[in-house]
Amino acid sequence: MKNCRHIDFSVFVRQLQNHEFASLPGLESQMRMAPLLRRDQIRTRGKSGKVVNSSILILLYPDMTNNVHTVLIQRPRYNGVHSGQISFPGGRHEPGDQNMQETALREAHEEVGVDPDTVKIVGQLTDLYIPPSNYLVSSFVGIAGTRPSFAPDRKEVAHILELPVTAFLDRNNLREIPIVMSGGECLETPCFLINDHTIWGATAMIMAEFVDLATGIMAS
């Protein structure tokens, strides 16, 4: 990763659309931000015979200065393994979804009000297994030409976080901090600490792969 203050949206989108997504940084990039306790389970998909298929959307759009932004959500507090965590818009695959890409777009529409017709999917990252929920997550990169008018579903979204992609490229925002896992263990865990928001777990792992992808694209 490298420090960078501004990524021109128009230039980056052109580079991204020309990239061959068959060549990805992959699991090793993701594992850099994985909690140590979970790494073996992630690599082996927990040796589970059956997983819950789900999708998330990494939505890219320009701010008023044409800098690339993305949107994350903070989950409400509830009795579950991902209570209060920061994540990408997304959720489990439903029987009515034609494919995993449609799941990502549907969930983004339901959770933050993004119109699927305004999003162009340009690629897919490496699938990631999440041990606590037994989810296998497919991650799709989408582009919106302008900033969406976000409308959060308050049952599923406590807060919307709009962050510049440059914040994830800044090494100063990388930390290892003690985090209590769903099983009660407290571990030093890699995370992004941005504007007092702690982004860890699957979201940080997915973003780590995207950061490596973006860094490679911009360097080419």
List the helices and strands and how they pair.
Elements lengths: L8 H9 L9 H5 L7 H6 L7 E11 L5 E7 L11 E2 L2 E3 L7 H13 L7 E5 L3 E3 L4 E9 L15 E6 L1 H4 L4 E7 L5 E9 L2 E4 H19 L1
Parallel strand pairs: 1-7
Antiparallel strand pairs: 1-2, 1-4, 2-3, 2-8, 5-7, 6-7, 9-10, 10-11
Overall description:
It is a single chain. The chain is an alpha+beta fold. It has six helices and eleven strands. The protein has one domain (9-169, 201-215): Nucleoside Triphosphate Pyrophosphohydrolase (Alpha-Beta Complex), CATH 3.90.79.10. 25% of the residues lie in helices and 30% in strands. The strands form two sheets. Strands 1, 2, 3, 4, 5, 6, 7 and 8 form an eight-stranded mixed β-sheet that branches. The protein has a three-stranded antiparallel β-sheet with strand order 9-10-11. The longest helix is centred in the last third of the chain and has 19 residues, at 201-219. The two termini are 14 Å apart.
